[in-house]
Amino acid sequence: MNRRRRTEILIEEESNLAKHLAESIAQKYKCYEITEPHYGLTMIKMRESAKNSLFYIGEVLVTEAKVEINNEIGIGIVIGMKDELAKHLAIIDAAYKAKLPETVEWESRLIDAEQRIWMKKAKRQAELFETKVDFDTMDV
Description:
By secondary structure, the chain is α+β, with helices and mostly antiparallel strands. The chain has 4 helices and 3 strands, in the order ααβββαα. The N and C termini lie far apart (53 Å).
């Protein structure tokens, strides 16, 4: 599983999976906090569809943290003021970079979490379609 997909799952997942995974690593390994969670602004890119060119739509507040485990640096960046989540993401990223044996076991948990996220999104989408008005069938 690639880094982007893993991070999206951990951010969207609501049962504190990131916290549990990070704590399991922090209990077994030395985690050196290189940069404690801090806030910053980053530019958001969008693709303009007519010319197919990139442009910056604006800035967004992010929280960033850096952690070192076994000489590997992990980075956690999340939108908003979420210090704890940024640190957990950094620990998980460092664990993957260090190729710790625990990361192999996480794959199935991440896939299960991804399935729950998709099911929740599908349910929400179905609820929205139920409220959609069909103007073709309305009487005039």
